[in-house]
Amino acid sequence: MPYSLQPITDESFFDTAPLNYTIDVEVPAEPDYVWSEFTRQNTLDWCRALKKVTYTSPEPYDEKTTRTAVLAAGAITLNEQFFIWDEDPAKHVYRHAFYAKISSRPGLKQFGEFTEVTPSPGGRSRIVWKFAMRTSGVALPSFLSTPISAAAFGSVKRDTVKHFS
User: Fold this and answer.
1) Distance between CA 66 and CA 159 in Å, rounded?
2) pLDDT of 137 strictly over 80
3) Under 8 Å between Cβ of 149 and 18
4) Residue 16: how many CB atoms within 10 A of its CB?
5) Torsion region of 150: left, alpha or beta (phi above 0 gives left; psi -120 to 50 gives alpha)
6) What CATH number should be reported for the domain whose range is 3-164?
7) C-beta separation of 109 from 5 below 8 A
8) pLDDT at res. 136
């Protein structure tokens, strides 16, 4: 049974959501290559937390692009709608953000991700990857939710650094 989620329409949600987590890393790869990995079909296949991510819109992608993500073991499927898609190849600066429109499981009111890739010295890239959500029901207190989020998103961070190293 599909469950509709509330849209995210403002980038500030990634900093103000009740539950949020940020990955901020440098990787030894050029920004254009890093961006191409984030925007290819079946992206994020390097992350053990995800089973499959498929763009459901034709290229070229933009702020109306849609995507489907299946988390590991098929526990949950999200239908996603991008609302930010900015590419500046001349400056090697890229960013996009989406919100989940539909979830295959209950429990989320809002969920979204923001990704930004920028150049770092020495041909490296800085990846800022923000995750934000609002759950339905009672939220865990931060002293419990922070370690849980760190563990869950920690594997995404480790897998991403390993993929680009």
Assistant:
1) 24
2) no
3) no
4) 9
5) alpha
6) 3.30.530.20
7) yes
8) 85
